[in-house]
């Protein structure tokens, strides 16, 4: 299995989005109205579900993620959009008046679901609208069709045909439509129940394989991936099949495991992995997800550490790249669990110069992992004035991510990175210049968490502002 860089993957998810709401609380008594427990709700937690969870899984891996889905015109849609946008996911919602955003409310006590209430009505979405939205951004080479039978896909064959005609790899996570509805898809990923609904029962694995190949020939797909719960997964290609046993671990909650499988499969294929290696990664990711409570997602660092723990524990293990806040938090937690020392620095880094490179090399020597947080374009403009930044955010992040001294690059919208520091709590906060320790923004946050604050020198007469002024004077 070759090394994977999920930050090169570009995945579009189209499907039935939902909001998973959890009401957490303790139970100490039985209701006087009926023989049922009374939950004293102390916390309400919202998580993206359905196709929204697929898109979140893609983003958490570090891949570029976009979602096309249907919602109502309600507060739940606003919450869902906010959660996804915060994870760096570009959302295109078809908002339907009079139809609620699909919401599933789970009452949970001591990590056990006691009851679930669903709020939903079927959508009726025109396939032409899906095709129009999918064509708006052509920077995605892989598309997931996440069909939960909630009405987004009235005629998926037309959509799949259009995607295939534009040379997209199309992965389908089906429900109970006839598989001919997904004709031409690259991969169809049913679970056992969905497969039996499509082809009927079987008496042996050989018969299952035969039925799958007949179905593949009928619908023109290249492969099927059958997820088989505790029996693992079976990848069926035209002239080959491979079985991947389930990863042995305690199963805590299977919610969202299928979403994780298709998200990892798509992201791995988009980043250049072979079909078999992509499935192997999906199998590992599913094992991680079922060991957690509720619908959750797997980060790129977490998956890589599970695939190759020896490499992950070594000092040479790297996961360089641009990250969202949530992805960075996963990576930092994993690094700290291995006893690694996390260093944090920040700046605009508008024009990368020798002073920056020397400074970042010195900063990296203060620990095992270096995070560089950079101001957004709007933040740079507020701080530096008209005509700045010279380089847009994505270009600045790409340049920094390419430096060997830098592990993770993240951006922030405010003028200071204090929110990031509150979230990450690095072991060392480093700043360059002639600041006093008490003048470093966020020093109190880091020290209150037991961390250190250090000021490093910068190369004299080498600054972005000076370079810009020199260029303007030419």
Describe this structure in words.
The structure is a single chain. The chain is α/β, with parallel strands linked by helices and about 475 residues long. The protein has helices at about 50-60, 75-85, 125-135, 155-165, 190-200, 205-220, 255-270, 275-290, 300-305, 310-315, 325-335, 355-365, 375-385, 395-400, 420-425, 445-450, 465-474; strands spanning about 10-15, 15-30, 35-50, 65-70, 90-95, 105-110, 110-120, 140-145, 170-175, 185-190, 225, 235, 240-245, 320, 340-345, 370-375, 410, 430, 450-455. The strands form three sheets. The protein has a nine-stranded mixed sheet with strand order 5-4-1-8-9-10-11-12-13, with helices on both faces. A six-stranded parallel sheet has the order 14-17-16-15-18-19. Strand 4, helix 2 (about 75-85) and strand 5 form a beta-alpha-beta unit. Helix 1 (about 50-60) packs across helix 7 (about 255-270) and helix 3 (about 125-135) packs parallel to helix 4 (about 155-165). The radius of gyration is 24 Å and the shape is globular.
Question: Nutshell version of this structure?
Answer:
The protein is an alpha/beta fold. It contains 17 helices and 19 strands. The strands form three sheets. It has a nine-stranded mixed beta sheet, sandwiched between helices. Strands 14-17-16-15-18-19 form a six-stranded parallel beta sheet. A four-stranded mixed beta sheet has the order 3-2-6-7.
């Amino acid at each position: 299995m070759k090394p994977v860089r999920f930050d090169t993957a570009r995945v579009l998810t189209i499907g039935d989005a939902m909001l998973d709401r959890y009401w957490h609380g303790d139970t100490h008594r039985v209701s006087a109205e009926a023989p049922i427990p009374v939950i004293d709700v102390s916390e309400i937690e919202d998580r993206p579900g359905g196709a929204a969870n697929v898109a979140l899984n893609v983003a958490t891996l570090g891949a570029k993620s976009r979602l096309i889905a249907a919602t109502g015109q309600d507060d739940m849609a606003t919450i869902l959009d906010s959660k996804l946008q915060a994870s760096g996911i570009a959302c295109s919602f078809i908002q339907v008046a009079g139809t609620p955003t699909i919401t599933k409310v789970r009452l949970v006590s001591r990590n056990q679901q006691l009851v679930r209430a669903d709020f939903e009505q079927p959508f009726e979405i025109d396939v032409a609208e899906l095709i129009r939205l999918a064509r708006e951004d052509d920077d995605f080479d892989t598309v997931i069709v996440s069909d939960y039978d909630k009405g987004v896909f009235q005629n998926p064959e037309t959509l799949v045909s259009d995607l295939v005609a534009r040379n997209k790899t199309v992965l389908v996570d089906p429900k109970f439509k006839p598989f001919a509805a997904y004709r031409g898809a690259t991969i169809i990923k049913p679970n056992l129940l969905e497969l039996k609904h499509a082809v009927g029962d079987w008496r042996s694995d050989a018969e299952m394989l035969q039925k799958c190949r007949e179905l593949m020939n009928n619908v023109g797909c290249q492969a099927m991936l059958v997820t088989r719960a505790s029996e693992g997964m079976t990848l069926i290609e035209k002239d080959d099949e491979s079985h991947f046993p389930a990863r042995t671990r305690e199963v805590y909650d299977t919610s969202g495991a299928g979403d994780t499988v298709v998200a990892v499969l798509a992201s791995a294929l988009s980043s250049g992995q072979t079909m078999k290696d992509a499935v192997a990664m999906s199998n590992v990711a599913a094992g991680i997800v079922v060991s957690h409570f509720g619908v959750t997602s797997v980060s790129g660092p977490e998956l890589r550490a599970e695939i190759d723990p020896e490499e992950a524990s070594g000092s040479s293990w790297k996961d360089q790249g641009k990250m969202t806040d949530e992805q960075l938090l996963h990576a930092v937690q994993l690094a700290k669990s291995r006893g690694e020392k996390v260093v944090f620095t920040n700046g605009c880094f508008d024009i990368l110069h020798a002073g920056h490179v020397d400074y970042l090399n010195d900063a990296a020597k203060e620990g095992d992992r270096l995070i560089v947080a950079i101001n957004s374009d709007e933040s740079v403009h507020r701080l530096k004035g008209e005509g700045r930044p010279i380089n847009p955010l994505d270009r600045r992040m790409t340049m920094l991510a390419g430096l060997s001294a830098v592990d993770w690059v993240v951006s922030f919208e405010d003028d200071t990175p204090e929110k990031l520091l509150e979230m990450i709590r690095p072991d060392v906060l480093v700043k360059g210049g002639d600041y006093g320790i008490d003048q470093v923004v966020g020093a109190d946050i880091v020290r209150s968490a037991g961390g250190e604050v250090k000021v490093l020198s910068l190369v004299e007469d080498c600054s972005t502002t000076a370079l810009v002024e020199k260029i303007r004077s030419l």
